[in-house]
Amino acid sequence: MRYLTSKLSQQIDDELMSVAGAFSLDQLMELAGLACAQTLATVYRKDVYPRVLVCCGPGNQGGDGLVAARHLGMFGYNPIIYMPKPGSKDIYQRLQKQCENMYIPIIPPSNDLEDLRKALQHTDVILDAIFGFSFKPPIRAPFDAVIPILNESRLPIVSVDIPSGWDVEKGNVHGIGLRPSALISLTAPKQGVSDFVGRHFIGGRFVPKSLDEKFELHLPQYPGFDQIVELVSGTNKTSS
Amino acid sequence: MRYLTSKLSQQIDDELMSVAGAFSLDQLMELAGLACAQTLATVYRKDVYPRVLVCCGPGNQGGDGLVAARHLGMFGYNPIIYMPKPGSKDIYQRLQKQCENMYIPIIPPSNDLEDLRKALQHTDVILDAIFGFSFKPPIRAPFDAVIPILNESRLPIVSVDIPSGWDVEKGNVHGIGLRPSALISLTAPKQGVSDFVGRHFIGGRFVPKSLDEKFELHLPQYPGFDQIVELVSGTNKTSS
């Protein structure tokens, strides 16, 4: 399986949403967010970990987080959304509204970290949808303060695509990133997570055969009609 | 659980996609089509029934069928799309393109029923996505001829929402509709299928709690993180 650079990830995303790929952002985000929710539900059962703090960044990954929050609500979890810097795109507002219709609480945007600290006291597991494959350091406020607080909580963390604060290609080189126990890579894993040691899933079962071939992704086979597949160690890797 | 009229089904769909509901057609169609594919895969295993003829109508249900065809391709089935009257909306063209990128064959649109007859000789199971909850008789050409041919094939049929040719509220009163062995009701079942005797599933796990309450749908509880739930006989029904 190929581990992707930030640039190649962007190229694949662009191709999926091009005239040739024909996907809309709504479709991809829906399937990606569903895969995130299913990963969390696979690793952290709702009877033991019902309270999920869904941390959303201002970009597309925050959108994946909002979709995941809605599905987690559907699955019977009690998600709460922490989104200190809401994205401006129309789609985030629609996704947020969908969560509100599920009665999912949203912590009002603010730079006051007390809200976050308080929420963590009532959290069983964190879904990290803060930064995605287009993240470039440095970590901007308020997330530079948020990430250490999340780590210090010692709660289990499920990260989406790339643990927030990690270099997309080099990993947690500066030691300032989140320390997740589980990871869901979307489309294909990024180079920065090649040494990740927790449970690692792939999601985004929408990459057509033509694109898998073109980019030589060698994606793993998903079982049955699942939307996620767990990687087992010893998987072949090719950097690109 | 409430069994819906055609009018109420339309009202719920409109509400889901209103400013208040905030869903896009792309999102709903993606989850609906995924539920259709999962239903077929649950009832007809791909090692025994690998070849699926996906029959699509010209409306939104045809779009659900195209999404289902793509997911069936992802699941390892060999779907073929039969869509004699393609819809004109941009979304159908995008969904069709997504199927082409999965190398899913599409029978060229035509009124020549020989194409259909030939395809049925190489089919193990049919997915019926021809008419949905807004169907009003009479059955228009070429579907007036297509439906008897599908029935005569004696192949198992999975119908989406309402078996094609059935009255949405009264069922197969004229005996001219398809005779499916399994059914996937989207959002909530329609009045016309209240006496359906095959395996019956509900899909479309996107109805928010607020809307379930407003329309008193009393939707069944989905298991785990599945996108479909099978109904067992003896379920309470309320007509509306």
Automatic annotation (TrEMBL), chains A, B:
GO terms for cellular component: mitochondrion. InterPro entries: YjeF_N_dom (IPR004443), YjeF_N_dom_sf (IPR036652), YJEFN_prot_NAXE-like (IPR032976). K(+) binds at residues 61, 128, 164. SUPFAM superfamilies: YjeF N-terminal domain-like. The keyword NAD applies. It is found in: Cytoplasm; Mitochondrion. Keywords: Cytoplasm, Isomerase, Metal-binding, Mitochondrion, NAD, NADP, Nucleotide-binding, Potassium. Binds 1 potassium ion per subunit. Its EC number is 5.1.99.6. The keyword NAD applies. Pfam families: YjeF_N. Transmembrane segments: none annotated. Its cofactor is K(+). Catalyzes the epimerization of the S- and R-forms of NAD(P)HX, a damaged form of NAD(P)H that is a result of enzymatic or heat-dependent hydration. This is a prerequisite for the S-specific NAD(P)H-hydrate dehydratase to allow the repair of both epimers of NAD(P)HX. NCBIfam families: yjeF_nterm (TIGR00197). This is NAD(P)H-hydrate epimerase. It comes from Hebeloma cylindrosporum. The lineage of its organism: Eukaryota, Fungi, Dikarya, Basidiomycota, Agaricomycotina.
